[in-house]
Structure formats: C-alpha cells, structure tokens
Design goal:
Elements: H1 2-21, H2 26-29, H3 33-48, H4 50-64, H5 73-85, H6 88-93, H7 98-136, H8 138-147, H9 159-170, H10 180-183, H11 203-224, H12 227-233, H13 238-248, H14 252-258, H15 261-272, E1 276-277, H16 279-291, H17 300-321, E2 332-333
Antiparallel strand pairs: 1-2
Helix pairs in contact: 1-3, 1-4, 3-4, 5-7, 8-11, 8-14, 9-11, 13-14, 16-17
C-alpha cells in the first residue's frame, strides 16, 4: 500500500511539474498553488526523509479512499480537517510533527471504522429487506412476462420494470465479510463488497419497480377482463372457470398463482380464434342499416328504440322455439369447445 500510494502521488506530482516546465500555465495544471507546493514538498520529502514521506503518502491515500458520505456531518468535518493537516509541507518544514500528524490520522481512522462498520451492517440489512420484497414479487413478474407473450392483448406492458426487476434480483443481498473492523485499518472499504459510505441501497428504485410490475399486471388483467375475452373463456371447464373468476375479481395475487405456461398457451390459442357475428345478428344490423343508412344526433333515440324492438322480437322467437330454455340472442359465434 505504501509503495502504491507513493508511486501514485509521485507520478501525479511529476506530471504536473513537467507540464509547468514545458510552459503550461500553473492554473491549468493544478487546482491551486497549494497543490503545486505539496508536489514539490512531497518529492523533496522522498529524498530527505523517505520513510516518513511514504507513511504520510499512505495516510493520504487512505483518506482519498474513505469518503465520509453525505449523512455524517461530523465525520465529514473530521475528514476535511485531517486532509488539511496531512501536509507534506508540514513534514518537510517540521519533521518533528510526524507524531502529531499520525495521531490526527489515527483519530479519523478510528471514527471512520466505527461509522463504516455500522453503515455496512445497516446497508446490507436494508438490502436483504429489499431482496425479500423482490422475491415476493416473483410470481407477479412471471405472470406479467407470460401475459406479455399474448399479443392478442395488445403491446407488452411493464417491460422496463421487468428488465429492472431482473437486474435488481441479480445483485447481492448480503455481504459475509469477517473481521471487518480489523481489515479496515489497512483498506478503507470492505474487501468483499467494496461498499463506501456514499453508497445507498436501491430502495427508491426497488419501490418503483414493484409499483411498475403491479400497475402493468393490473392493466393486463383489465385487458383479460374485457367482454370479448370473457365470452371466449365462458366456454366452460373447471380450470377456465377458476381463471375467469380470478380475472373478473381483479385478483392479481390469484392471477399470478393460476397463470402458468400451459394456461398461457391455451389462452394464446383461444385469443387467436376470431369471433364472428351470427347470421341473426347480421340480420338485425341489416334492418337497422336499411332504416337508418345515415344517423343524425336526433335519430339516435329512435334507432335505439328500433334495436330494442328487434332484439325483443328475436328473444320472443327463441322463447317460442325453445320454451324450456332461458331465451338469449347470440350476437357472435364462439369457437366450439376443443
């Protein structure tokens, strides 16, 4: 770590000083004159007191890898103060201050480790809760994906939510790091998950995805509950009756449980079969067209009265022909049971 920190700092310092020696304006090379002064002091310290320079470089590298996060004002203040104190200029001009610099760093590191361990635990606890919520929505996601294959229902719905659901469920739900506090003395992040205090569980995204799945599934269910689909499904059969009850009740949980690949295949076959008007229905429509080839707003009531009369006549004829059955006028021919 010491070698890596010094190599990185040395390379950065040499690059900036080289640009200045090539006549690049200093304010375009470094963010402040203090940065250039630190570069020079670091390179001189490496020559005059290399062990102390390497130790200080390691401290600064640790700080650079230990962002304090947005919600810890005290730690953020300690981070900024420690970063300001760990100066190569101070080391160069007052080498006896190394013990003081080390003590300042150790105070920050102790506070950082304590905050990190607590945050690590809370983060992965929350992540496990989110994963449980996602796992609980698995049947809904599967049902939506299956319904989206039924092109007769219209364009697929909730595809973005399904993609995000798949991505979220691929993420880890727990970190099993052991001896975290001890490991954090050497490296400012967990070696297992590389979590930082700036990271946060995808709570908002997870909630949005779950809402998106439910909304899309509800809309697909509403499509299934349309009159045309219900007429097709009304052909009978115990399983279809159960499915029809679930659909008509807007029971998304029940829909998720009853909908499997076999039923989706059957529904796809049903939905692909056309619904054709009966000859009787065409006769009623022909009579309406002849009486009202063009309909104005004033004629709507009269047209409806005529339609009502024609339907009553058809029902009366059915009652006469089949007195033992409840009269019904069939507007469309449903496919015969398979």
């Amino acid at each position: 770590m010491l070698s890596l920190a010094s190599d990185t700092l040395g390379a950065q310092a040499l690059e900036r000083l080289h640009k200045i020696s090539a006549d690049a304006p200093p304010d375009t090379v470094a963010p402040s004159p203090g940065t250039l002064a630190e570069d020079v002091a670091f390179l001189r310290s490496l020559t005059e007191q290399p062990e102390a320079a390497l130790e200080l470089a390691a401290m600064r590298a640790y700080l650079d890898g230990a962002p304090p996060g947005r919600d810890n004002a005290d730690l953020a203040a300690d981070h900024a103060f420690t970063r300001e104190q760990l100066s190569f200029l101070t080391l160069l001009e007052q080498p006896h201050q190394l013990d003081s610099l080390r003590a300042t760093f150790e105070m920050f590191r102790a506070g950082y480790i304590d905050a990190y361990v607590k945050y690590h635990h809370a983060f992965w606890k929350d992540a496990a809760r989110l994963r449980a919520a996602l796992d609980g929505a698995l049947s809904a996601a599967q049902a939506l994906a299956r319904l989206n294959t039924l092109r007769a229902l219209g364009p697929p719905l909730g595809e973005a939510a399904l993609a995000a659901y798949e991505r979220l469920t691929q993420q880890r739900s727990a970190c099993s790091a052991r001896g975290l506090a001890a490991a954090l003395r050497e490296r400012p992040a967990c070696t297992e998950c590389n979590l930082t205090l700036e990271d946060s569980p995808p709570s908002e995204e997870t909630d949005q995805v779950l809402r998106g799945l439910q909304t899309a599934l509800h809309r697909q269910q509403a499509r299934l509950a349309s009159e045309a689909v219900r007429r097709i499904l009304a052909r009978g059969g115990e399983r279809l009756e159960q499915f029809l009850q679930v659909v008509q009740a807007s029971d998304l949980a029940g829909l998720s449980q009853v909908l499997d690949d076999d039923l989706v295949s059957f529904l796809r076959e049903l939905l692909s079969e056309p619904v054709a008007p009966t000859p009787e229905a065409l006769g009623v429509f022909d009579a309406l067209v002849r009486a009202y080839p063009v309909v104005s707003e004033e004629q709507i009531d009269a047209l409806l009265d005529m339609l009502r009369q024609l339907l009553l006549e058809q029902l009366a004829a059915r009652r006469t022909a089949e007195p033992a059955e409840e009269p019904a006028f069939r507007l469309a021919s449903l496919p015969p049971p398979s």
